[in-house]
Write a structure and sequence with these properties.
The protein has 117 residues and is mostly helical. It has a single domain, classed as Four Helix Bundle (Hemerythrin (Met), subunit A). Helices cover 83% and strands 0% of the residues. The chain has four helices and no strands. The chain is globular and about 45 Å long. The model has no long low-confidence stretch (mean pLDDT 92).
Length: 117
């Protein structure tokens, strides 16, 4: 499935995936459980593959990749929503609302593509 993203959406997607890969690598280094390491390594590999597709602008995704992408975006949306709920400054709240709205538009595209498969 090929998705059409705006430049801003691609940049947002890249940043989210890049951060998530960093977080996964950190979690991998902190755990001693072999099964957890395997699971996290497979998640990281899947996200790295999607990142490579974005970098090379080969935006044709398998259903598994779309599902992974939707999950990562959903998780990031949850984090942003939590940050927004805890924010007290008006400027920060507005910035978080803007980021959340952009993420929701991106997530909607991916979820719609998932439903079409």
């Amino acid at each position: 499935m090929q998705l059409l993203f705006t430049f801003e959406q691609l940049r947002l997607l890249f940043r989210i995936l890049e951060q998530d890969c960093r977080d996964l690598r950190e979690r991998i280094s902190q755990t001693n459980n072999i099964d957890v390491k395997r699971l996290l390594n497979s998640e990281e590999a899947a996200e790295e593959e999607i990142l490579e597709k974005i970098i090379s602008r080969q935006l044709q995704f398998t259903s598994d990749e779309l599902d992974e992408l939707a999950q990562v975006l959903h998780d990031h949306h949850q984090k942003l929503s939590n940050e927004l709920a805890q924010a007290s400054e008006a400027d920060l709240k507005q910035e978080l609302r803007n980021r959340t709205a952009a993420l929701e538009r991106l997530l909607d595209k991916v979820v719609e593509a998932c439903a079409m498969l």
